[in-house]
Amino acid sequence: MSNWYQQVCVVVLCTSGLVSGVHANELSTSQATTSPIDVREQQRELFLEAEKALKQRHLDEYARLKEILEDYPLLPYLEADYIRLLATAEDDNRVGNFLNQHHLSPLGWQVRSAWLDKLMDGHHYEQFLRYYEYPGSTRHQCFMVYAQLATGTGDTKPVLRLVNDIWLTGDSLPKDCDPILEAWTNAGMRTTDMVWQRIVLAAEGGKHTLIPYLQKMLPMPMQYLAEHYHRVRRNPVNLNELKFLTGNYPTQETQIVAYGLGRLIWRDPDLALNLIDNLPDHINFSAEQYLKLRQTFAVALSLKDHDQASRWLARIDATEHTDATLHWQLAEWLREGAWTQIMGLVPRLPDSQRESEQWQYWFARSLEAQGFEPVSKQIFERVAQQRSYYGFLAAAKLQQPLTLSRDALQLPAEHLNRVRQLPGVQRAYELRALDRNLDARREWNALIEHQPPNDQRALAVIASEWGWHDQAIYTLGILGEYDAIAQRFPTAYMEEHQEFASAVNIDVNWALAVSRRESAFRDDARSHAGAYGLMQLLPSTANLVERRDVSVHELFNPSYNIRLGTRYLADLQRRLGNNWILATAAYNAGIYRVYDWLPAQPMEVDRWIELIPYVETRNYVKNVLAYQQIYRTLRENELQPELFGELVPMQISGAQLKR
Which of 26, 146, 201, 489 has the CB geometry, 3.0–4.6 Å to 170, for a possible disulfide? Predict the structure, then answer.
C-alpha cells in the first residue's frame, strides 16, 4: 500500500468516526494534514472509477484501484460486482468466502442469487445445492428439486413432494420448472385437488389468464367450474348466470359464489343482495364463509350509504366485528346520534377493542351525552393520559394540560462509537453520500433486523444525528421508543417550512405535521399512487399549483416541494371556508370528495372526522392533527391543548361553503 494511502486511511478512519481504526487523539499533527472530508471524497471518486473500470472489463485498472481502496467501506460492493459479472464455477472459494463474510448484509442475498443463476446455467448441481438457501426465487426452488433428482439415488417421491408448495401459486411458473412439474405429474402427484387449489389461487388474486390452462387439467365433468370461476373473476356480474350452479359439485360451486358475492357487493349492491336471498338450495355457506360475507356486505353497503347497511351491520354480533365493521357501526350511530346504542355495545366488545382509545373516548362521549358526566369524566381522564389524537381530544374536553413526555433517547458515547464502526453503518453512510439511497436503506434495514435491541437504539440515534429522519422515525417506531418525541418529530427543513408557511399565512406546525405524515421527511419518497417528495405531491397537483409542467426531478427538491405543498394547503384551506381540518382531509382525498362528505346540518368535528368514508383519509386527518399539536408543543413549549381546544366547539357543515 502506498504511503499516501496509509496517511489517507489513518486520517479518514480516525477523524470521521465512520470506520474502525485508531482513535483520533493518537494522531500526530503532522499526520493530519489532509482534510478527512477531502480524502473521503477522493475515495468516493476512486470507487466510482473502479466500478467503471470493472464494467468496461479494464481489469488491471480495476485491480489497481481496488488495492488503493483496501479499507474503504464500499469495497465489498466492488467484489460483489466482480462476482456477478465475471465469476465462474472455478471461483468457488472466492464466492464462498464473500458469502460467509456478508451473509447478514443485503450483498449476501444479492450475490447468492446471481451466483445460483450462474450455477444453474452451468448445471453445477452439487455446487448449487451447497449454496442454495430456502426459499430463494421460484427458479431456484425448481432447480433445487431438479438438482436433487439429478444427484440423488433411491426413492424420488420425498423430493418430488417439494413440488407441491411450488405448484400452489396463483401465478405462472417459469419454464425452468417444467422438468420437475413433468416428473411430479408422471409420479401421479398432480391430483384433482391440487389443480383446484391452484385455480382458486389464480381466480382470487392471482393471474386469472392461468385458469383456462388449468381448466384442461380437471376431469371433464368439473371443467365448467373453472370456466365459471374465470367468468366471475373477470366480471362478478356473471355470477348471475345460474346455469353454472348445477349442484354436481356443491362445495366448489359454493366457493365460487362466496368469492363472487364478495366482489359483486362492491360492483352492483342491489344485484348482490337479490342473489344472496335467491340462491339454489345446494349453496350452503360454511360458518366462516357466511361470516366473511356478512362482514363484507356490511362494510360495502355502509361505504355506499345503502339503505340496507343497517340491516347487515345488525347481523354481526359484538364478538364478530372486524375493525372495519366496528367502525361503520360506530359511524352509523354517530350519524344518528344514537348514544344509547354505543353505550350498550362497548361493554360487549372483545377486550382489545373495548379498551382501545377510540372506543373508550366514544363511550365517554355517549355517557356525557346521556347525562352521566361524572362517569364520563373518569373515562376522559384515563384517555387523556395518552399521547394521541383521542388523548388530546379528551384533554381538551377536560380543559386540562396534555400528556407529552419528551425524553430523548440517549446512549453512552462509547456505545454509539462502537455501533458507528459497524461495517453496515459505514456502508450506509457512504451509500447515502453517493445518493444510492435504496442500497443505503437495504443496509440499514439489515442492521435493524440483525442487531440486538440496544444496538438498534444506537442506530436510531445515529440516523437522527445524520438527519436521516425517516430511518430514525421508522427505527424508533419498531422499537416502541415512543417517548423519544424530539427524535420522532424532528423539525426537519425548518427554515423552508417556516419561510413558505409564512408566505401563504398557514401554521408552520401544520405544514411540518403534513410532511411528517406524508414522508417522515424522506425527500426522495414516492408512493404507489405516483406522489413524490417530502410532501408527496402528484405531478398533476404540482402542475395546477405552479401553472406549468413540473418535473418529477423538481419534486424531489425539498425546498421546492415544501413551497408547492404549503401553497396547495393554503389554497385548499381558502376554498374550504378557511377550515384547516377540511383542508387536511382534502390534501389526502381531494377537495371534491370532501365537498361530498360535508353534512347538510352542522355536526361536531369529532363526529364528522369519524364519518369520513375512507379509512386512509380518516386516519390521515387524526394523525396530522395529533402531529400538529405535538409540533406546536415542542416548538412553543406549551402543554395547554390550544389546538385541540379549538376542535371541541367546532361545527362542520357544507351549508356555508361555496364550491
Answer: 201
CATH number at residue 31: 1.25.20.10
Residues 631 and 507 in one domain: yes
Task: Flag whether 224 is in a domain.
Answer: no
Reported as half-sphere exposure (CB side, CA atoms, 13 A), residue 238 has a value of 14
Same domain flag for 600 and 475:
no
CB of 62 closer than 8 Å to CB of 85 = no
Which contiguous run of DSSP H or E holds residue 412? none
Whole-angstrom distance, CA of residue 147 vs CA of residue 640? 69
Q: Is the peptide bond before 135 cis (omega within 30 degrees of 0)?
A: yes
Residues 83 and 30 in one domain: yes
Cα 592 to the center of its chain, rounded Å: 27
Spatial contact of 453 and 479, defined as CB atoms under 8 Å apart: yes
In Å, how far are 227, 233, 458, 590 from 262, measured between CA atoms?
Answer: 19, 11, 47, 28
Query: Does residue 87 sit in the same domain as residue 124?
Result: yes
* Residue 70 backbone zone (phi > 0: left; psi -120 to 50: alpha; other: beta): alpha
The pLDDT tens digits of the residues spanning 531-552 come to 999 999 999 999 999 999 999 9
Is 554 one of the catalytic residues?
A: no
Strands (E) located in 243-384: none
The active-site residue, picked from 518, 546, 638, 642, is: 518
Question: Residue 543 and residue 553: Cα distance in Å, rounded?
Answer: 13
pLDDT digits (tens, 9 = 90+) for 564-592: 999 999 999 999 999 999 999 999 999 99
Please tell me the distance from the alpha carbon of residue 49 to that of residue 76, in angstroms, as a whole number.
15
Residue where one domain finishes, among candidates 114, 136, 158: 136
Range of the domain at 630: 494-522+560-652
Spatial CA neighbour of 511 closest among 528, 495, 524:
495
Q: What is the pTM of this model?
A: 0.88
- Whether 392 is covered by a domain: the verdict is no
pLDDT in tens, 279-305: 999 999 999 999 999 999 999 999 999
Q: Are residues 422 and 564 in the same domain?
A: no
Cα 512 to Cα 106, 484, 490, 506, 591, distances in angstroms: 33, 17, 9, 11, 21
Decide if 27 is inside a domain: yes
